[in-house]
Inverse folding.
């Protein structure tokens, strides 16, 4: 039987092929904004103004004072794969511009109505190009300012199937705003102005990155920045308390190119470790500087993803930069667990970032900052033992004072942090956690899928203080019963069955191993949490003193292992201000 005509392979008409190709580049108004603004950056603009109508759904206008184009360039710019940025295959290995494929204007003009006005610097007459839905362009001379103005309207007017998937005005505006923020943050030397309808959303003058962050996110965010200035990672991160439930304030760049990279994101989050809760994201504006030949930016239609030659190396340098930044900065709003000597030891590495004063003199003035140290052998001056206990509220918080300041301590979080640090120190110093044999082994039933995982992890579990052995099947669950013969010493006298179940469940999800640093810390965190009495319970004076003593002997005591604050400081002047004294 002959093959039906409709099933035969055929070459698509050019206009249909163009619309399909445009769909890879232009997903929504924000895609248009990204391409146009990046073109302005590549053109050497010092001022870029973006105007949006109805979130960009009705119209987008981008005005820049860049180099502009002559008539011939303006005409050919709408041809697919026309670009001034690369010319040979070898150029793909050394891309330094935002754009390089020559697809943006062709794709945008295929699914919208476009008017381009441009004039090269020094020329008398400019050029106007009008193109609608991929039709042949109309080109004419026109008087216009130097630089380029491009107006895009009625996106997807000729592809209703795409248009119906656009979201609300607010949603589309939010996406465009994110794009403009990201581009403005990576180019602080360019003035950016954004107008939505008749409202100016922001007008950020050229300046430093810190000033740009203040212009976009406000003074509060800018005041809590931590400078990152390693050899290959530059930018700022926020304190743990600035973490959000979404990644909308996590801006990552590779050679100034905004990217979405799960590996880099994971490196940033793991750099914070237990200082932020699971499921939350830190504030960060970070640029990874790497040779262009070591990164492939040509793997995604929107150029929002990249591939590194050595992904593991990039992960390591980013995580190390975060750890180093946190180790030398203030994370407790003025609370110091160490004296001026320790603070001064970290000052040299941070003296140029202009965020805080880490000198011994500053500490002596009563405004010390928490100093993290990687050197336990350093001489420390613990301050927790100098605090006077005033009382307790709600069975959960200690009130303590020292001089002209008082502090509120979350006793559960503080005890959990102290327990966690003791466990980490044990593991770091001896490769295992001290354990306590049980006089009577404790039985624990596991789910069927957890049996083999626990069998395979017995050595790993022994390293964190648990000795478990199989005891036989359980007809009720179809799983296995294990005997817990030893537990971490910190759990002495407590039931560990629920904890073993939690660990078993996590092992199944993570692949059955706790050899990796992050996995070990996660287990130690669970042990620490399990060792602390939950709920509201007043502490005796001796217990309160013991808690303060334990805090004075550990590092990183400003936050609990889950990232919640442990201690807050209030000055006499703040209290006076509350009562208008």
């Amino acid at each position: 039987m002959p093959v039906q005509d409709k099933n035969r392979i055929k070459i698509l008409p050019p206009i249909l092929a163009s619309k399909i190709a445009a769909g890879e580049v232009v997903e929504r108004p924000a895609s248009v904004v990204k391409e146009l603004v990046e073109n302005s950056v590549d053109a050497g603009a010092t001022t870029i103004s973006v105007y949006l109508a109805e979130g960009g759904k009705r119209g987008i206008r981008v005005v820049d004072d860049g180099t502009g184009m002559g008539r011939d360039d303006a005409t050919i710019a709408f041809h697919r794969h026309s670009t001034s940025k690369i010319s040979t295959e070898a150029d793909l290995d050394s891309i330094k511009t935002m754009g390089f494929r020559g697809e943006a204007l062709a794709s945008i003009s295929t699914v919208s109505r476009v008017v381009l006005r441009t004039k090269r610097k020094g020329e008398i007459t400019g050029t106007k190009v009008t193109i609608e839905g991929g039709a042949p362009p109309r080109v004419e001379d026109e008087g216009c300012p130097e630089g380029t103005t491009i107006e895009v309207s009625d996106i997807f007017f000729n592809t209703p199937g795409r248009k119906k998937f656009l979201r609300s005005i607010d949603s589309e505006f939010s996406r465009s705003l994110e794009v403009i923020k990201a581009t403005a943050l990576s180019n602080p030397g360019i003035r950016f102005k954004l107008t939505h309808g008749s409202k100016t959303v922001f007008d950020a003058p050229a300046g430093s990155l810190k000033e740009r962050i203040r212009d976009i996110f406000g003074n509060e965010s800018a005041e809590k920045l931590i400078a990152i200035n390693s050899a290959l990672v530059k930018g700022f991160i926020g304190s743990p308390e600035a973490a959000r439930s979404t990644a909308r304030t996590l801006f990552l760049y590779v050679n100034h190119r905004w990217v979405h990279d799960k590996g880099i994101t994971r490196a940033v989050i793991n750099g914070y470790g237990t200082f932020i809760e699971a499921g939350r994201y830190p504030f960060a504006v970070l640029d990874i500087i790497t040779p262009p030949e070591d990164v492939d930016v040509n793997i995604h239609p929107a150029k929002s993803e990249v591939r590194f030659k050595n992904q593991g190396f990039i992960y390591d340098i980013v995580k190390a930069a975060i750890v180093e930044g946190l180790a030398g900065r203030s994370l407790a709003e003025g609370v110091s667990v160490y004296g001026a000597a320790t603070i001064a030891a970290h000052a040299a590495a941070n003296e140029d970032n202009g965020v805080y004063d880490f000198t011994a003199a500053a500490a002596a003035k009563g405004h010390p900052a928490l100093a993290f140290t990687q050197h336990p052998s350093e001489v420390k001056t613990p301050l927790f033992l100098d605090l006077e206990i005033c009382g307790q509220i709600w069975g959960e918080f200690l009130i303590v004072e020292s001089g002209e300041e008082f502090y509120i301590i979350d006793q559960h979080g503080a005890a959990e942090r102290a327990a966690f640090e003791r466990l980490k120190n044990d593991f770091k110093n001896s490769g295992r956690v001290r354990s306590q044999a049980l006089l009577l082994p404790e039985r624990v039933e596991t789910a069927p899928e957890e049996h083999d995982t626990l069998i395979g992890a017995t050595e790993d579990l022994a390293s964190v203080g648990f000795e478990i052995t199989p005891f036989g099947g359980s007809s009720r669950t179809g799983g296995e019963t294990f005997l817990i013969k030893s537990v971490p010493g910190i759990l002495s006298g407590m039931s560990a069955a629920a904890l073993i179940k939690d660990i078993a469940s996590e092992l199944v999800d993570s692949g059955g191993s706790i050899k990796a640093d992050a996995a070990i810390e996660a287990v130690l965190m669970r042990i620490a949490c399990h060792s602390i009495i939950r709920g509201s319970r007043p502490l005796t004076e001796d217990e309160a003193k013991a808690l303060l003593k334990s805090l004075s002997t550990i590092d990183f005591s400003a936050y609990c292992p889950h990232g919640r604050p442990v201690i807050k400081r209030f000055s006499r002047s703040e209290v006076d201000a509350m009562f208008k004294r």
Notes: The chain has 19 helices and 22 strands. The CA atoms of residues 93 and 275 lie 39 Å apart. Confidence is low (pLDDT under 50) at residues 330-382.
